[in-house]
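Side project, low priority. Logging it here so it doesn't get lost.
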Amino acid sequence: MATTAGAAAAGDIEIGGDLVVRRLGFGAMRVTGRGIWGEPPDESQAKATLRRVVDLGVNFIDTADSYGPEVSELLIADALHPYDNDLVIATKGGLVRPGPGRWEPDGRPEHLREACEGSLRRLRLEQIPLYQFHRPDPRVPLADSLGALAQLRDEGKIRHIGVSNVSAAQLRAARQVTPVVSVQNRYNAADRKSEQLVDVCESERIAFLPWAPIQQADGNPAVAEAARRHGASPRQIVLAWLLARSPQMLPIPGTGSPEHAEANVAAAAIELSPDEVTAITGPA
């Protein structure tokens, strides 16, 4: 049965050799307004959600300067600062928001520096533990963008570098510029275009952060059957499937509701059988 067991049930993952966090995190995109734009409709509920996930043992929170924009980072600091010693706040830069529903890449080194320094101020951090390049910019050589992050790391403004929305070839290119400790791509039980990258991350001990982890949870008969058997929701089952998929998997389900956060974290305690995992995965 799925309960409100804490995130500790998911076990731990090591990021970059010196960050150890629970293997079920929280994505702070949806504590913002509708369409990931502006303030949330209920600021007190958004902050309560952030506090609740920490109470449940989550110690990895993923955000970005483009969520709001800036709103998510400000809410995290307002709700949780001063941070617990083991809480890792990861953020991202490289996407700009000219307006609602618009996400445009900007990988210019000068923009990434400005974005990182803005995140430091909003999050009230002296150093960002994990800073992720949000999306490669086709107008800017990847080496230039990653080189800017490497310089920020050398200056002590960030601790580790991650990449997001990349292909396997782009990950290889990024790693030629600087060590990369995490990859954040869209991946879930219904969308496994990043399957190759999951395997690469597992073999290279790179954390894989699947975004949209619980989208399209319905419609898979194997998910529905496992949900019935475990007394859980389909969303909890697909989170459990992700945790079973690879030890380098770090799901970051997000919500603006404390109750939904509790349900997501409860998935950490669900142990799927090998047959259930295979049935949900489907044909190779």
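Brief comment: The longest helix spans residues 109-123.
Revisit when time allows.
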